[in-house]
Specification:
With 297 residues, the chain is α+β, with helices and mostly antiparallel strands. It has 4 domains: 71 residues, Arc Repressor Mutant, subunit A; 40 residues, no CATH class; 74 residues, Roll (SH3 type barrels), CATH 2.30.30; 84 residues, Alpha-Beta Plaits, CATH 3.30.70. The chain has 8 helices and 15 strands. The protein has a 5-stranded antiparallel beta sheet. Strand 2 and strand 3 form a beta hairpin. Helix 1 packs parallel to helix 6. The longest helix is centred in the N-terminal third of the chain and has 17 residues. The radius of gyration is 24 Å and the shape is globular.
Length: 297
């Protein structure tokens, strides 16, 4: 498999966009990272074809740039929940369990279906009455103001994040009228409209703490410079939360903001020959000390 085979190109695109998160990556940066050949125009067309292919396979990648601007691609998570159909007996048992557990709102998630083909069955209600999940995700990634009806009352919200909950997807953000951070259920929202891109910039304090201890602020932040063979760049970027800055020949240059030195260096050692720590010297010296400890037992 050559470094520019389709499989590796698709893997690199998804890896880079996964690490980039809601900021995404420009078409120019993706073209350089993936390493397409040909003219600038043909390289961009090749990137578009690969992104169309990924979208057809179920990976949602969207260009969030303003019209006339260089494309900026963001990868979204899609709703992967599996719809279920329960018999009447199963629905009754689940409703009884929900009431005993103190969660009566779960009962409302079920409704009877009286079709001739499935008499007496009940189906788990989806969020089809609310907005599309992609619409909510775009409001966060593109920082768009959200306007919608909720319990019959108009709301204006600056969205901070979207996440799944016990009873469906929710949006958490600042409700402008009350100047208070609140959480709204997708299934109870209607007549949703998105404001212009950038109309709802979230403050730094609104970001959720990362579940990955690599981003926990254990040590003063410092920027590490790394190099990796281009075929491993996506893997290195993913494990170290690094940014792919450039590729030259077959080598990619990456940078990563280090908040947890011990864990960062442990992951560098885990990657082995797939990555080289170029700097700073303080991190290289600490890495050398760790390696001597391993060798000496």
């Amino acid at each position: 498999m050559t470094p520019t085979s389709q499989t590796e190109r698709l893997f690199t695109i998804t890896s880079v966009l996964s690490v980039a998160g809601p900021d995404g990556r420009s078409a120019k940066a993706l073209v350089e990272t993936v390493g397409y050949g040909g003219t600038d125009e043909s390289r961009r067309e090749s990137l578009k074809r690969d992104i169309r292919h990924l979208n057809r396979t179920g990976i949602s990648i969207e260009n969030v740039a303003a019209p006339g601007s260089d494309a900026q691609y963001v990868m979204h998570l899609r709703d992967s929940r599996i719809p279920m159909t329960l018999t009447e007996e199963q629905q009754l048992e689940l409703s009884r369990a929900a009431l005993l557990a103190g969660a009566p709102e779960l009962v409302a998630q079920f409704e009877s279906t009286d079709s001739a083909e499935q008499p007496g069955n009940v189906t788990v209600k989806s969020d089809s009455a609310g907005p599309e999940l992609d619409q909510l995700l775009r409001s966060v990634t593109a920082r768009c103001r959200l306007e919608f009806l909720y319990n019959g009352k108009p709301r204006v919200v600056l969205p901070y994040f979207v996440e799944p909950g016990s009873f469906g997807w929710t949006v958490t953000g600042l409700e402008v009228a009350e100047d208070r951070v609140k959480t709204f259920s997708q299934s109870r929202m209607s007549e949703v409209e998105l404001g212009p891109v950038g109309s709802a910039e979230a403050p730094e304090a609104a970001r959720r703490p990362s579940r990955d201890p690599l981003e926990w602020h254990v040590d003063p932040a410092e920027v590490a410079t790394l190099e990796a063979p281009r075929r491993f760049a996506g893997e290195v970027a993913d494990l170290l939360h690094a940014r792919i800055e450039s590729t030259e020949f077959e080598v990619a240059t990456l940078s990563a903001t280090v908040h947890n030195r011990v864990l960062f260096l442990a992951r560098v050692m885990e990657l082995g020959t797939r990555v080289t720590l170029v700097g700073p010297d303080s991190l290289r010296q600490q890495l050398g000390a760790h390696l001597h400890e391993v060798i000496d037992g």
